[in-house]
Amino acid sequence: MAHAKLSPSAADRWAVCTASPEAEAPYPDTTSEYAQEGTEAHDLLERAVKAKTAPKELEPEHHAVDAVQVAYEYLEGYLNDPTVVVLSETRVDLTEDCWGTADVTVLLPTGELIAFDYKHGRGVVIEADCRQLLIYGVAAWKSFEWMAPASIKKITTVVCQPRAPHADGSTRALTRTLNDAIDEVEERVYGPINKIASNQTEFVPSEKGCKFCKHAGNCPALAEKALEGVRAHFTPTGRLDVEQKENIGALTAEQKAAVMEARPLFKTFLAAIEEDVEKTLAAGGVIPGFKMVAGRSNRCFDKELDEEQVIAVLRDELKLKQADYAPPKLLGPAPIEKLIDVNKRNGKKKMERLQEIIIKPEGKPTVVPESDKRPAIKPQFEQVQNDPLL
To answer: Which end of the chain, N or C, is less packed with Cβ atoms under 10 Å?
Structure first.
């Protein structure tokens, strides 16, 4: 699937840090389990809107059905109104480089355009005044004004995020006049687009912009900004810059506030560095003083056996009582081991049989100092250079 150079979903990054599109360009596209869940949720909403059928009726067992149902109920009244035009998953273009796919666009006979965006995520709360929705609203006006039942006079941007708690509820809206929306796009979007097009770009780190930036782990500007905030009240020696000797060892309220203000951006920077280091070491690269080892893990029953098979061994072969090993669900290996007295008849054989169905899986790869006693794990690829983009 093609992607816009200036994606509306990343507008809060490139509109602030105009150098980010070029900096991110060499990095490959990635995905995740959460992204896949979001894609599947959007697919359910699209099918429900086009079929004019509630998600709970269309696919009641879908993992996202409850959340998508909230979005559908907001739109349902428009779907059954013959005077309203409803478009689902349609491409909208603001410029040649800035375009995206709008979840749902509603054109009303009152002259209102609704740009509706569904968000399945719960980790980052999205507001109705974000640049992405503003772009969708104005781009939809440019793309679909010709099919509107009445001349468009105002644009309403709506974000529906059922899984993220918000004081204003799961569905939030902001209405602007068409002229106000155009003026706002001119200031917040077209300005940065023109700077990028004319190569007048600069790195401007921000918590929101850097959070999902592919270049964050290699960005000197982010490093400087994050460290600048943390050391704002420290001397070059690393000691707190306190005015009086008796204050040594106790931070003032102002100093604590300064560190707290720096905390979000520094956390973003640290997470980006950790992710990049993990990728580099996993690919066989070198980070001086660090290595990757298998993380800690807990013992469990053999994953090739389902729960019924494990219970069969405990019940039929080891003669254990269900009330002891599954009250009410199956316990882990450690408490079940305590049920077997190796000093009793057949106790040792029972323990040996139990050990046969217990495994200790390899822990998640973890970056540690080279002084850690655990052996380094082999890289996923051989003879890979220490490339920061890996």
So the answer is: N
User: 135 vs 217, which has greater pLDDT?
Assistant: 135
Q: What DSSP state is assigned to residue 80?
A: T
Residue 230: which pLDDT band, with cuts at 50, 70 and 90? Answer: low
Q: How far is residue 359's CA from residue 85's CA, in Å, rounded to a whole number?
A: 58
Look at strands 300-301 and 290-294 and give their pairing. Answer: unpaired
Distance CA 289, CA 150 (A): 66
Residue 239 has pLDDT above 70, yes or no: no
Say if residue 242's pLDDT is above 70.
no
| Rounded-to-integer distance, Cα 199 and Cα 181, Å | 26
Mean pLDDT of the chain: 86
Number of C-beta neighbours around residue 117 at 10 A: 23
Contacts of 380-385 with C-beta under 8 Å, sequence gap 24+, read 380/282, 380/283, 380/284, 381/283, 381/284, 382/284, 383/284, 384/283, 384/284, 384/285, 385/285
pTM beyond 0.70: no
Residue 119: CB atoms within 10 Å: 22
For the chain, give the number of residues.
390
Q: pLDDT tens, 335-364?
A: 999 999 989 988 999 999 999 999 888 777
| Strand 112-118 with 154-160, pairing | parallel
**Rounded Cα distance, 261 and 209, in Å:** 16
Taking CA atoms, 2 is separated from 7, 101, 133, 134, 386, in Å, by 11, 11, 20, 22, 30
Residue 360 CA to residue 334 CA, distance in Å, equals 12
Q: Please return the burial class of 157, using the count of CB atoms within 10 Å of its CB with bins 0-12, 13-18 and 19+.
A: buried
CA-to-CA distance for 364 and 298, rounded, in angstroms? Answer: 11
In what order do the strands lie in the sheet containing 154-160? Answer: 85-93, 99-107, 112-118, 154-160, 171-177
Q: How far apart are CA 246 and CA 225, in angstroms?
A: 31
How far, in Å, are 188, 231, 233, 329 from residue 237 at the CA level? 41, 10, 12, 56
Find out whether 362 and 286 touch, Cβ atoms under 8 Å.
Answer: no
Residue that is written with structure tokens 């995206």 in the block: 100
